[in-house]
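re: ur msg from earlier - yeah i can do the flavin-adenine dinucleotide complex, just paste it... oh wait u already did. ok heres what im feeding in:
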Amino acid sequence: MKVMIIGGGPAGVSAGLYTLRAGIETTIITNNKSALLKAEKIDNYYGFAEGISGEELYTNGLEGFKRLGGRVIEAEVTGAGYDEGFTLSTDKGEYGADVLVLANGASRKTPDIRGLKEFEGRGVSYCAVCDAFFYRGKRVAVIGNGEYALHEAHILEKTSSEVIILTDGKKAPAYENCDGRKIKAIEGGEGVERVVFEDGESAEISGIFVAIGTAGASDIAVKLGALTDGRYVKTDENMLTSIPGLYAVGDCAGGLMQVAKAVCDGAKAGVDIVRRGKQ
Ligand SMILES: Cc1cc2nc3c(=O)[nH]c(=O)nc-3n(C[C@H](O)[C@H](O)[C@H](O)COP(=O)(O)OP(=O)(O)OC[C@H]3O[C@@H](n4cnc5c(N)ncnc54)[C@H](O)[C@@H]3O)c2cc1C
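and the outut:
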């Protein structure tokens, strides 16, 4: 059995410590953007009399995982699929696993653009692989400027008449059809009809795909068909999602956004993976 964990923060590492110690091949994929790296000092976690910096806790976690034989791949996950096993697309290639643990924090970013929330589900989507079908032969836009935006654009190219990446004032990625103007609003009637830019001009667009930053856990869960509750992934008491073999732990599973809870979630998932592996 191969376990793949997306995320090298406390939740992902904790799950991996349990699977490694049971002799299960375990790999963490991380792009090193843990919430811990923004925490100057953690003063409320067990065992550190003087507190510990978020960065040190993060680094120590991954070092402990490696010491037990865990493999760490530094890459950014952009997509996921399932076909007799999980497949992850990353900026460094594809990886497969029998069990997948989502431990990639709560990172979904939504830009503050007028009309975006209003048109969610009516022209604004967060998943190209799920919704590209609805925009066959139409002109669509991806909002974002990183690897994730590129990944979503390439999926949409297969079905849409034209795909344009809107960077909303950010640096353009390596894509032939980009527009870097700041976005003012998304407008339409029953569905999205146009994007209005801050310079007053507008572009006729039928579908908007939001892909800002990196793919969050709920984005990946949705691609795999798992149930989510807004930006959080739904799980049972063992952190198993609605898809067999797919777990979600830590901040991405919602609830208390703290290291202690992330570690606990990871432990529950790790124990459950080991238990099921023995059955
Ligand atoms: C400023 C700040 C201060 C905080 N202070 C405290 C505190 O004092 N005490 C406390 O208990 N908690 C604190 N927290 C909260 C704590 O940091 C989080 O609850 C905890 O880190 C959650 O762990 P996690 O493993 O779920 O996610 P994270 O630690 O966020 O780790 C997510 C992992 O997923 C990876 N990742 C994400 N997306 C991708 C992708 N697409 N591809 C590859 N890898 C990906 C990231 O690189 C990272 O390794 C603080 C948070 C912040 C932001």
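cool cool. The helical segments are 10-21, 54-67, 128-131, 147-157, 217-223, 259-278. ping me if u need the other ligands too
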